[in-house]
């Protein structure tokens, strides 16, 4: 087969969930199916990239490339999908968070695109890939996609995390960053999707017992969707919270592996790669018991039940720091849990979706 794959996810030039998914899936597909052809259709974002540019790409350029390239299937693995095209369309929808919570987006155009337009294009796709049963359920109930057209294909960890770095490498990275004290780690965007306020309050509470600990936050901080820096000042945490921003790929394994524990207080996740990456690096994880996170973590971490309070978060952080037996047990389970997810398996399941669309 010849498959055209929309690779606009690479256009931002930064590593995030979309690029991890598209990049690793392409590598696995080409390795597993050398007789098939996978055409990459890139586009580069620019400072003025807005929803009109997105729609022109999705609805104009992608179908045109499919027609010109003579592909058998179009796969749009992030964002929205083409409504008018000459070939079957496979659309990957990573989550429908903003169909659940449109109020978390700052503008009406963003709310329309994420909460209305993406569900609409999902209904018109030949097949929809979801990374979790939780997202599949949302596609059925919130977007109205027939259940038999939604196929669950879980993600896996990037090969970056295939092996825990050596202690020397971990210590060298920590020394470069000035992370001499033990630290709690969070990796991901800081916006309204995450309970970053609960994280700060829980960490402040925990420091009453473990005053030497620092909180390291890695990832993009959305100025429009959070006032994190002001909240840090208000909580009088000062240098106890370290904002490292974007971390280079080669440094991420050491950042994870150097942490005492990983905390992921997310309100909703389509899949949730950071907890899986932390487990692959031998770090015990605390997260909220919501959406796809129980599927990702299994019994290999601590999942907090509702109501999610900062005191419960703090108590579990303290427990996980103090109880070495529990830490060892969760670390071992985490290694095993992370190993159950495979990009090779994801490639096989995705190819089955392509073949089903062509043969239907």
What order do the helices and strands follow? EHEHEEHHEHEHEHEHEHEHEHEHHH
Number of helices: 14
Based on secondary structure, the structural category is: alpha/beta
What percent of residues are in strands?
A: 5-15%
Low-pLDDT stretches are: none
Query: What is the fold named in CATH at topology level of the largest domain?
Result: Rossmann fold
CATH class of the largest domain: Alpha Beta
Please describe the topology of this protein.
Blueprint lengths: L1 E5 L10 H16 L4 E5 L9 H19 L3 E4 L12 E4 L4 H4 L7 H16 L3 E4 L2 H9 L8 E3 L14 H11 L5 E5 L8 H11 L7 E5 L9 H7 L6 E5 L6 H6 L3 E4 L8 H8 L4 E4 L4 H5 L4 E3 L5 H13 L1 H16 L3 H17 L1
Question: What this model shows, in words?
Answer:
The chain has 14 helices and twelve strands. The chain is α/β, with parallel strands linked by helices and 360 residues long. It has two domains: 2-156 and 342-359, Glycogen Phosphorylase B (Rossmann fold), CATH 3.40.50.2000; 159-339, Glycogen Phosphorylase B (Rossmann fold, 3-Layer(aba) Sandwich). The strands form two sheets. It has a six-stranded parallel sheet, with helices on both faces. It has a six-stranded parallel sheet with strand order 9-8-7-10-11-12, with helices on both faces. Helix 7 packs across helix 12 and helix 10 packs across helix 13 (324-339). The model has no long low-confidence stretch (mean pLDDT 94).
Brief write-up:
The chain is of the alpha/beta class and 360 residues long.
List keywords for this structure.
single chain, 360 residues, alpha/beta, Rossmann fold, six-stranded parallel beta sheet, 14 helices, 14% strand, globular
């Amino acid at each position: 087969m010849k498959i055209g794959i929309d690779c606009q996810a690479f256009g931002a030039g930064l590593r995030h969930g979309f690029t991890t998914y598209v990049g690793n899936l392409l590598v696995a597909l080409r390795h597993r199916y050398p007789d098939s052809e996978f055409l990459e259709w890139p586009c580069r974002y620019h400072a003025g990239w807005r929803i009109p540019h997105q729609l022109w790409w999705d609805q104009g350029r992608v179908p045109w490339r499919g027609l010109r390239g003579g592909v058998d299937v179009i796969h749009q693995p992030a964002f929205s999908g083409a409504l008018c095209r000459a070939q079957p369309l496979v659309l990957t929808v990573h989550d429908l968070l903003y169909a659940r919570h449109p109020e978390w987006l700052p503008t009406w155009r963003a709310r329309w695109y994420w909460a209305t337009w993406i569900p609409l294009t999902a209904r018109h796709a030949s097949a929809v890939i979801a990374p979790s049963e939780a997202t599949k359920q949302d596609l059925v109930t919130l977007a109205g996609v027939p259940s038999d057209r939604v196929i669950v294909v879980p993600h896996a960890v990037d090969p970056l995390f295939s092996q825990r770095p050596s202690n020397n490498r971990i210590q060298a990275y920590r020394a470069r960053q000035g992370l001499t004290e033990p630290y709690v780690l969070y990796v991901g965007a800081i916006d309204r999707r995450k309970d970053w306020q609960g994280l700060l309050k829980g960490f402040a509470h925990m420091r009453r017992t473990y005053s030497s600990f620092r909180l390291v936050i890695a990832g993009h901080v959305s100025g429009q969707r959070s006032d994190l820096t002001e909240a840090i000042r208000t909580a009088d945490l000062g240098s106890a919270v370290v904002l490292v921003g974007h971390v280079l790929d080669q440094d991420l394994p050491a950042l994870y592996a150097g942490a005492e524990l990983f905390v992921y207080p997310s309100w909703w996740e389509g899949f949730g790669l950071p907890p899986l990456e932390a487990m692959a690096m031998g770090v015990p994880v605390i997260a909220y018991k919501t959406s796809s996170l129980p599927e990702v973590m299994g019994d290999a971490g601590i999942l907090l039940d509702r109501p999610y309070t900062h005191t419960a978060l703090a108590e579990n952080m303290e427990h996980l720091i103090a109880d070495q037996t529990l830490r060892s047990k969760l670390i071992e389970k985490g290694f095993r849990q992370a190993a159950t997810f495979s990009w090779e398996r994801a490639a096989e399941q995705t190819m089955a979706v392509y073949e089903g669309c062509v043969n239907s």
